[in-house]
Amino acid sequence: LACFYPHPASLPAERLRDWIIPAIAATMFLALVTVVVLRLAPKRPYLLVGWLWFLGMLVPVIGLIPVGNQAWADRYAYLYLVGVYLMFAWTLARLVHRHPALRPAVICAVAALLAGFLLLTWRQVGVWRNNQTLNEHALAVTRDNYVARTNWGIALRALGRHTKAIAQYEEALRIKPD
Description:
By secondary structure, this protein is mainly α. The chain contains 7 helices and no strands. α5 runs antiparallel to α6. The protein is flat, with a radius of gyration of 21 Å.
């Protein structure tokens, strides 16, 4: 997760080719899951409800309708992931209903999953500690992030590290000369 992902349209044209295959793969995956969910919907309507929630809430945060220069805003992941959680929870409830002996194993597995999410959340919150950690992390998990480079330069300048700040500004200009 990063605080900012540059929108491909804001990058020079030669960098756009890096986005084509992932965009096609993501579209094919969404189409495949949609077909599977539609086929299962008569017997498992909760899958359709969860999937429609996911798709509906995904649209405003993935940059199809640009709001600012970011490609997507994963800080709003909790909105669209509610649909996935619904699908998951109802699937587990159905499994436990049909096979009551699995209830303790399901409870343990869900507890372990939640503990894992808690640890990941703790780690991610630490990324937002200050401008240094936030921008270093954004640069580590994104490419061609001229905004993070600029912000990191600002943070370095505030710390009096002018040479390193200039290097960040120059890299931002190399990525997005305008």
